[in-house]
Amino acid sequence: KQExxxxxxxxxxxxxxxxxxxxxxxxxxxxxxxxxRQDPGKGLTSLLLIQSSQREQTSGRxxxxxxxxxxxxxxxxxxxxxxxxxxxxxxxxxxxGYALNFGKGTSLLVTP
Amino acid sequence: GAGVSQSPSNKVTEKGKxxxxxxxxxxxxxxxxxxxxxxxxxxxxxxxxxxNSAPDKSGLPSDRFSAExxxxxxxxxTIQRTQQEDSAVYLCASSVTVTTDTQYFGPGTRLTVL
Lengths: 112, 114
Fold this sequence. Notes:
The complex is a heterodimer. By secondary structure, chain A is an all-beta fold. Helix content of chain A is 0%, strand content 56%. Chain A is globular, with a radius of gyration of 13 Å. In chain B, 0% of the residues lie in helices and 52% in strands. Chain B is globular, with a radius of gyration of 13 Å. In chain B, the strands form 2 sheets. In chain B, strands 2, 4, 5, 6, 9, 10 and 11 form a 7-stranded mixed beta sheet that branches. In chain B, strands 1-3-8-7 form a 4-stranded antiparallel beta sheet, with no helix packed on it. Chain B contains no helices and 11 strands. Chain B is mainly beta.
């Protein structure tokens, strides 16, 4: 069974810092990997999707990388802002292509 | 355009009662998914639909849970004889097709069983 782990569980940084969130998974046979953001009491917002054949994806201040062979992905956030405060979730899509396996998330707090 | 919507946003029920949760996917999305987010448990997959068909129901936690989708659009998740351990946030997602596409999530229904 695919296990997805996110480290750290919580992170607090001052505004302006660059930061890295880590995601690891046990089975390298994946279809794709998605990073989501969840604000308190809200649903999930998709940030980036990386197909298994890709190495990275970028959107604005966000950059996600994927190393499938080592079972790792990182989400890099540049020049963090208080509005980035949220829980960030990593989800792995198995070869079947539908049932996302989620990590438990990293709770990020960016202080002004 | 409109995103995935779910209703109700909150539901409080008594143990033993039946509940129905509704999901309206993004128009044109053929794939629809149900997940559950429990405190301390993270997000777990329940079931998905391709059109009106549910090829994989293995994620449903018990036979008290069922789901249907009609007209390739709206889906209903029904929980019969609710138990306190059913308390969670139930999230619905949709995608253009199964496999490679981004899954877009609704705001969820928070279910509390007293």
